[in-house]
Amino acid sequence: MFVFLLFFLTRMSRDMFDRLVHMLAPNAIFHSPKKKQRHVKYQVAAFLVRYGQRGSDVLDVASKLGLGLGTVHLYCRRVTRALRELRSHHLGWLGDERKKLVSQRIEARSGFPKCAGSGDGCQIRMSTAPVENPDEFLSRKKEHSTNVQATVDDECRFTSFDLGWPGCVTDSKIFKYSHLWRHRHHYFKDGEYILVDKGTVSSYLKLFLLIAHL
Question: What distance in Å separates the CA atoms of residue 65 and residue 20, rounded to the nearest whole number?
Fold first, then answer.
């Protein structure tokens, strides 16, 4: 039942789900010394049903999966912690050698030389308005949300991210205050750059691209 609801609600493929479970299963947080836990796949499924669809709250997940509210919270905390511990192994900026390979592949496919990837932003809608300063989280679509901005390489692997910004904040402002922009001369060398849409292209990025190509 868990798995059926997962694929129906989140559109995640079975292969991707199995890979995720395989990566998370060895984490000690899923192996209690005293009481045996439910299999990792059920905990991951509860996490994805809650966070993998638009605006799903704890009560909704508990009702669909036949779980207690506390159990949903517990499963989600465990999976969140396990995912965070995997971050350093699967997400990070390009090293010089990898960046060179990425740039070569992008140039071969699209003709853009020295391109280190692409970036974009998206909004994650909230099921309820925040208690504090709710108006700041209203997006241009008049939905309460938070912003996520990320960069990827040519294989769509994440190389950086900034998250937690209120929905009212523009992509260009998020980029301006991102670690990637503030430390741009550490990440980009000898005319390297990333491709972004017009929502991110501000005077700051234009200036950086100009300097990078001098």
Answer: 20
Structure tokens, 127:
């099921």
CA distances from 116 to 66, 112, 154 (A): 46, 10, 8
CB-CB contact of 58 with 50 (8 Å): yes
User: Tokens standing for 201?
Assistant: 């292209």
Residue 93 vs residues 67, 139, 149, 154, 165: alpha-carbon distances, Å: 39, 29, 14, 13, 21
Q: Which pTM was predicted?
A: 0.70
The string of pLDDT tens digits covering residues 61-109 is: 888 888 999 999 999 999 999 999 988 788 889 999 999 999 999 999 9
3-state class (DSSP) for residue 125: strand
Q: Are 59 and 69 in contact (CB under 8 A)?
A: yes
CA 98 to chain centre: 21
Which DSSP helix (H) or strand (E) runs through 145? strand 145-152
- Measured CA to CA, the distance from residue 71 to residue 76 in angstroms comes to 8
Task: Dig out the tokens for 126 from the structure.
Answer: 């909230």
